[in-house]
Amino acid sequence: MQVALAFAAVLVVPLRASANGIVSHMHISDLALRRLPPGELRDLLSDPELVDIYRAGSVFPDSGYAASDAYGEICHWEPFTTAYIRWIRENHGDDLTTPEARFHIAFLMGQASHGLADQVFDSLFMARTTQLDGDSSNLDTAAEGWLVVEHDPRNEIEAVFDGEAMVDVFAGYPELLDDHDPDAATFETGRVQISRAIGAIYAFGWTWYDMYWIEMPWAATHYYEADNVPGSLPHVATFVAEYWQVLWERVHGRDTLGESFLGTWPEDGAVNFETARDRVESRAMIVFGHGLDRSTFGGNVRLLDPEGAVVPAEARFIYGSPFANAILVQANDDLAYDTEYVVEVGTGVRDIDARAIPEPVSFSFRTRCAPDRLGDCPPLPEEWVRPEDPMPPPRDAGRPRRPDGGTDAGIDAGSEATIDAGTPDVGGGGGCATSGASSGALLGLAVTWLARRRRTR
Ligand SMILES: [Zn+2]
């Protein structure tokens, strides 16, 4: 009965989740908070009154899909982040320490976390899943199940939005927001739907754990790997923590593009970079904390060989927004073996406000050695081999593990970020404790069907 009810609940949530699922988005923000240096921003986001507000912001963009409204897609991108920052400054700029201002800063951080996480995750992790598991179309839903079972994120919330403020943001900056004018009722619909979806994932994510584990064993075993897995949830969180610090400056009106650089993949000085263009690993990424103008990349985002010559390459965002944060750079042809390349973002690149980057930003990496010269390079990492018969790890009769001590796979540091929003009653009795039951598979399929992503821009 309980399963049937929840199944119905899932069916009425027209959720088109994005690259990361919604619980994953909240968790990425939780992880990012633990990475912030001590200071005002960390204090604000750690405020027990505001933890669930940044979490609500972290699911806000996808709530628009749940409400079947264009605000969902719009709120994924920097033009919205920029508009929201302007709105905060115009309405609360005199005193950013009021409860209202702090609410909106926390919500902004969540919204921006979501947007950046989708860019980084899709550019790095989802692309690898497609390559190594063959298909990533169910990845967002799948990872929600793996996450709630394996890492017990404890962030099940009833989302809180300030719909009137959102109406005001859209009304105030139509030039940034496609002249879209959603009303408060639409945001309320999104809020209700996304809250239901969070509950459904907590209640039933375990039911599709095995099915998707078998479908995507590489993704299942790597989505939470902190080291050397680009785009894993902890890796995404490192970019979000850097982004938040830039946003903190932006909301205070003291940001500079010179301090906008957040990080890269691979890291500066990396070795064994992939040479083959048809491999996703040959794609480099450089990330900024402002919305950069894609139309200014030509001739200004460059891949350089050891002589400083320009290597023909494309520079783009993962999706079609004209303003975003993560620039992907990939050579048009295979790279040379055992060669150092530089990615440079030059001073011709501008942000959404037409400000230019004051100094070029660059990083370098060295490509792997040729197969017959492997001894000249550091050892290559072991190649992933898909198991003949992928076998999920045994679990306790399909019930999520619920560690009592708040231990969270060793990632945790500082428990203020994990203030519990109430431990959900998962499983709900013997009938639900059969892993891989057909109802579970059906649920998974239903959610997958509902979770088709729409990227329109
Ligand atoms: Zn999304």
Order of helices and strands: HHHHHHHHHHHHHEEEEEEEEEH
Cross-sheet strand order for the largest sheet = 2-9-8-4-5
User: Which ligands occur here?
Assistant: zinc ion
Tally of helical runs: 14
Short description:
By secondary structure, the chain is of the alpha+beta class. The chain is 41% helix and 11% strand. The longest helix has 35 residues, at 99-133.
Question: Can you offer a commentary on this structure?
Answer:
With 457 residues, the chain is of the alpha+beta class. The protein has two domains: 2-239 and 427-450, no CATH class; 256-376, Immunoglobulin-like, CATH 2.60.40. The chain contains 14 helices and nine strands. The strands form two sheets. Strands 2-9-8-4-5 form a five-stranded mixed β-sheet, with no helix packed on it. A hairpin with a 5-residue loop joins β4 (301-304) and β5. α4 packs across α10 and α7 packs antiparallel against α13 (233-251). It is globular. It starts with a helix and ends in a 7-residue tail after the last helix. The relative contact order is 0.16. Residues 1-18 and 402-457 have low confidence and may be disordered. Bound molecules: zinc ion (ZN).
